[in-house]
Amino acid sequence: MQGDVFNVGPGELVLIGDFKENIHLPLEIDQEGYQYYEQAQITCLSIVAHTCNLYGLHVKRVYTLLSRCLTHTAGFVLKCLRLVLEQPEFQDIQHATWWSDGGPHFRCKELVYALLSNTPPFLPNCSFSVNFFAPQHGKSEVDGAFGFFSRLMRVALPEQGVESLNELLTFFENQTKMYKNADIENRQKYKFFKINCTRLPSKAKKLVISNFKECLSFTKQDDMLVSAPESAADEESKVFSPFKFKLEEVASKVKTSTASEENPKVFDDVVNKQLKSLQKSLSSK
Known about the structure:
Blueprint: H1 2-6, E1 12-25, E2 40-52, E3 58-67, H2 74-85, E4 95-100, H3 109-116, E5 127-132, H4 141-155, H5 165-176, E6 190-194, E7 203-207, E8 217-221, E9 224-228, E10 239-242, E11 245-249, H6 264-283
Parallel strand pairs: 1-4, 3-6, 4-5
Antiparallel strand pairs: 1-2, 2-3, 5-8, 7-11, 8-9, 9-10
């Protein structure tokens, strides 16, 4: 992975994705330990993206998706990745390299096929290679981002705490807005998104391959699938096979968190203001 990141050039993209341990709401400055287990959960998926602009400047950004959807499947990961790749900074990417650990929501035939297929391409005019870390690979760059977020939640919480998904999103945006890349656009290093997921597909195209469990690297060459036991494998270790899929049923039931989208206190304040305004209007007649 380090080689991919170090050598990324114009028109290229390296992505590293992982799930953080679910965030528990509400977040409070003085919180008893037992309260942790009674809290509602929020999914946190981060994707570190490395690119290189036309001036040869290396740019790193961290895209974090927060959701009340607690179903961590390949379908959910692909939904999140699509949202990230819709950002304008990726419109000229010609080749992307994906890295993640071997969790079942990442290392599966559904995700590999979706990224490698060009009917339709996952990102227009862009080819993909897909790589997975070996077991016990140690910490990745995403873990560093998660450590940063955890510190923010420990030392920078507002006095009133954080009670809803929207407040959590605003909290992270406010705490990271001063971190910017030194590229010509001076874009922010951290971007946060709220993603709604009330439905996941019940069927998905899965890669047809016999040696999937033995491989950590997948790409396409001349419309053939190329699989290998590692990303920098020699030619003798690569296996070429037809690039085919099989449509199969997948887990589609969505588990939704009980966490609030919006702080009910904020909603109550809005309602109270509207009532007072209405009462004032009626009394003046």
